Structures are given as structure tokens and as C-alpha cells.
Amino acid sequence: MGSRFLRLSVSSWINGYLLFDCGKYLSGFAPIIFLSLVAVCAARPLYPLPSKLAQGAKQPLQTSRPYNIAHRGSNGEIPEETGPAYMVQSHRRGADFIEGDILATKDGVLVCAHDLILDDTTDVKEHKKFADRRRTYMVQGSNMTGYFIADFTLEELKTLRTKQRLNFRDPQYNGGGAFSLNELALLAFWGKYPIITFEEYISIALDAPRVVGIYPEMKNPVFNNEHVKWSGGRRYEDVFMETLKKYGYKGSYLSKDWLKQPVFIQSFAPTSLVYVSNLTDIPLLFLIDDVTVVTEDTNQHDYFSNNLQTYSEITSDAYLNYIKNYVVGIGPWKDTVVPVANEYLQAPTDLVARAHARNLQVHPYTYRNENKYLHFDFHQDPYQEYDYWINKIGVDGLFTDFTGSLHRYQEASSPLPNAKASSVLHKIAALVSSYKNG
Predict the structure, then answer these.
(1) Which residues make Cβ contacts (< 8 Å) with residue 95, sequence separation at least 6?
(2) Domain chopping of the chain, boundaries
(3) Torsion-angle region of residue 253: left (phi > 0), alpha (psi -120 to 50) or beta?
(4) Max avg pLDDT among 170-184, 370-384, 411-425
(5) DSSP 8-state assignment for residue 25
(6) Is 35 exposed, middle or buried (0-12, 13-18, 19+ CB in 10 A)?
(7) Is 350 helix (H, G, I), strand (E, B) or coil?
(8) Would the pLDDT of 328 be above 90?
């Protein structure tokens, strides 16, 4: 194998690289290097914070076809929301954006995790010292029991290791395993995959060899604000936005600043989106669940009243007219756009048309390769599903567990223009954005 530059996440080497021969260790120096790496990785976060070192011109974000959004990283292959899952996407799976869910720890640190509880995606149940942390809380109108992230400090969470949520997916990285040096450099020395912080997630995108956007979700803001407290009376949403600002994320959609560091902020909680719209010009996206589900930000103490707001109500024309003042798009569950009965597609709703009429993008979720998720109409072929949603329904982005499949489909059906043409398209996009925002 050829030599590779490996990024080191140590304070003294944070802006440097180590030239490492993957096939043959240098005599004499190899033991020292190896032991140093092990010692460092045991004491420091594995994932490097963004370097001040000039990174040179990167391949820009493509804006000429629907966005390929890595849902929770590469969770079709690797445990969700982990460093390796995001690094695979940013380095070699063709994702335009890496998507993550952001929750708060007991000590107020923002971390990447989809569930409020750790039960289904970590080995928390194997840690006897945490046996007394099992709790029951009211979450969106129902009792939920488990090991809540909000009851653990970051230091405690870092002792846990992740696993695949779905037992029919590749289990080889559950609580262990490692990629080769060819694939993920230092991860081969780490082995087991811990929960990562919001900042570590950001650093993976910023350190990618091309421009990779982030797509963080403000997750369960009501619960976070009830169970976690920050100094100065700050809210979860404030800390979320402070983190993005710290790393330079800013700018309206397709602006020069945005194209440099692309980002969408998403949430199922409309009041949180309205709140942060007063703090930033970053484009926001409103997530929509099944039409029978109660909205995520409904005050938990009012759930048993008779005035509950469901997603059915907020997909109305009146609500879309309201929310378009704050967001650039919606992210509906697929079946909200195209209903399904007995695993067959039914007639599409007019939600996409109504959203587009209000200049709102539509990024549905979630696209998966497994047969159990592919409706009969697609004959167990994910390419047919992508073709249907992109060319018939006309969506603007897709949240997928298998970005490699979507990337290959798009490269075959609508390959990106060459670098020179891409540069021209970006200049045109910037001019259009400037005109629209002027």
C-alpha cells in the first residue's frame, strides 16, 4: 500500500499530519509511533477539530441535482451517528450533506444521537454501574422508559460503545471492529465507536477533502429544555446556534458564505424554528411526520387537553403560508407525500406541488435499500425508487441510509458537469441568490 497522511487529534499535532506507511512499519520508530497513538487516543477525542492549516481549493457542493443526504451517517453499514459513519460519507460515499440528530447531556454538552434513550443503539445495559440510571419520563404525551442521555454526563457517555439499531444490518462493528487503514486511517487503532459530540460531527465535515454540508436536527427541544439547564438562562436552541456560529456557519441559502460551509437546520418543532429564525439567516427546514402524529414541540403539560396540533393540521395551505416565512423547505415522511396500502403506492398527495408553489424545497425521508422497505411497485430495486421520487414526484433532496446507492444512481442518470462547468453554475447560483436577497 502507498503512504497516507493521517490526521492526528492531539493538541500538539492538531495542525499537522503524520506520514504513515500502511504496508510496512518503519524499523525502530514504529513501536514509538504506535504506542504514542494508543496513548493519545485513550486520552483525547479521536476526531480532529478543524485545522487552521490552509486546505486548498475543495471540490464545491453540487447544486444541480437533488441533494444526497446521509441519514444519520452511513447507518446502512455502520452504527448510526458515529464518527466512522460520518467519515465514510464525507470521504467516499458521495453524500452532499451528513445528517445528525442533536441532543443534550446532563452537563449541557450537545451530542449526536437520534433517540432520547440509549437502549437501542449502545451497550449501556452491559454497564452495571449505570443500572440505577433507568428512568421513566413523559415524552410527547406518553411514558418512555430507558437510559436517557439527559441523565448522563459526556464523560460517562464516552465510556459507552455503539451498535446497529436494526439486527438485520451488518453487526461486525457493534461495540467493536475496525476499518482498515486504507479506509479510515486512525480508526483502525480505535476499534470501538463511541458517541460523538456536535463539535466532533462538525469537524468531520470541515476536514473532509471536499465541501460536505451538515444537516443537524434540533431534536426534542421541549424535553431538552425541561431536563437540562444552561447558564444565563440559555435555551437548548441558543446553545445549538452558538455551536454553529463558533465554527463559522452562516449565510442564506446559496449565498457565498453558505456555499463555503453548507448547512440546513431541521426540526419537527415549528416553534423552535421560528425562535432560531431570529438568531440566524441559515436556511431552516420543517420536518413533518405522519399526519396523525402530534407535533414535537407541543407543550408536554398540555398533551391531555383537547386542543392538540397534529401534522395533518400543519400541512394545510394556511399553515404552509405561515411557515414559509421562516423556512426554505419541508422534510416530510415519504408516506405523507405518497400514501401506501398493503405495500403498494397509492395516488400521490399534492403536498410537493403546494410546497413548490410557495418556493419551499421538499426533502423526504427515509430511503433504504432493504427489501422490507421497498414497496412492491419498485420490484426490490432501490434505483426504481429513486427514479420515481426524483423524476415523477420531483423532490429536491433525499434522506437515505445508503448514500452510495443514491450517488451511483445519480451519476448514471444525471452525472455532474465537469469542474469548469460546475464553477460557472456556482457563480450563477450566487448571483441568483444575491438578486433574490437584495
Answers:
(1) 68, 69, 70, 89, 212, 403, 407
(2) 1-44, 56-163+194-437
(3) beta
(4) 370-384
(5) P
(6) exposed
(7) coil
(8) yes
The answer to whether residues 370 and 382 touch, using CB atoms and an 8 Å cutoff, is: no
Q: Which residues contact 342 (CB under 8 A, 6 or more apart)?
A: none
DSSP-assigned states of every residue in 271-327: HHHHHHHTT--S-EEEEE--TTSBPTTS-GGGTTSS-PPBTTGGGSHHHHHHHTTT-
252 close to 134: Cβ distance less than 8 angstroms? no
Lowest mean pLDDT of 43-47, 97-101, 220-224, 380-384, name the range. 43-47
Of the candidates 283, 279, 309, the one whose C-alpha atom is nearest the C-alpha of residue 296 is 309
What CATH number has the domain spanning 56-163+194-437? 3.20.20.190
Q: How far apart are CA 75 and CA 400, in angstroms?
A: 9
- pLDDT confidence tier of residue 76, bands split at 50, 70 and 90: confident
For residues 81 and 73, the answer to whether their CB atoms sit within 8 Å is: yes
What's at 62, amino acid-wise?
Q
* pLDDT score for 163: 87
Helices 198-206 and 236-246: angle between axes, nearest 10 degrees: 30
